[in-house]
Amino acid sequence: MTGRIVSWEIFPLSFREFLYGKGIESDGPLSTRQRLTIQTAFEDYWQVGGFPGAIRLHQRQCVEAYQANWNTILASIIGHHNISHPRAVIDLAHWLVDNTGSFYAVSHLTDYLKSLGHRVRKSSVVDWLVAFEDAGRLFSVNIFSSSPTRISVNPRKVYCIDHALAASVSSGILSNRDSLLENLAFTALRRMTPEIFYHKTKTGREVDLAALLPSAPGQE
User: Lower CB density within 10 Å: C or N end of the chain?
Assistant: First the structure.
């Protein structure tokens, strides 16, 4: 017999929670001084991210802490899943974080790993992507569609659980502030729902993120 298990998703601090932790008021009408205080706090949040312990660290210490967390999680994934290609998993994870907010296809990822000398199958890459999401570090987003075929033939987008974590472990390729802002928007939506997609209009224009939010009680 097994006991009952209740799982709770715990996310990094939102900006509102970050402000609360610093004792900064953000509700109600704000004075010009309060607005400037919040703007300054956002720059801090942008640098240190939402991991609670990072608030008390200097930027260099914060980067080192995120890198240590990242390496620990990857080691845990490799050990837990008894992965026989640990270097391939590490290289895949770093490619994904370097391309936060960008599109990917499993076949492209497989070819990329093969170009590095890894002998991997597409099925293994799929398993590793699931493991990253189960570990709460990297998430994939499908195109919004009711057609399974359209979903399967279109690329997916990748996001990290925290923008500062992504910036800290990136190889330096990830320097686009817009990509990190998009990642910040993703994590804000992900706190509310796992039903997140991107959308392509008939004219080819892209909506970066579209979410199906849960209805309030009595509004189903």
Answer: N
**DSSP-based three-state secondary structure for 114:** helix
Relative to beta strand 138-143, strand 196-200 is: parallel
User: pLDDT tens, 26-68?
Assistant: 888 889 999 999 999 999 999 899 998 887 888 889 999 999 9
∠ CA 32-15-103, nearest 5°, is 125
Under DSSP, the state recorded for 10 is: -
Q: How far is CA 111 from the centre of its chain?
A: 23
For 100-147, the pLDDT digits (tens) are: 999 999 999 999 999 999 999 999 999 999 999 999 999 999 999 999
Dist CA 70 CA 77 (whole Å): 11
Neighbouring CB atoms inside 10 A of 158's CB total 26
* Signed CA dihedral, 182, 183, 184, 187: sign only: positive
Closest C-alpha to 175, from 62, 109, 97: 97
- Strand, helix or coil for residue 217: coil
159 neighbors 76 (Cβ within 8 angstroms):
no
CA–CA distance, 199 with 144 (Å, rounded to integer): 5
DSSP class of 84: S
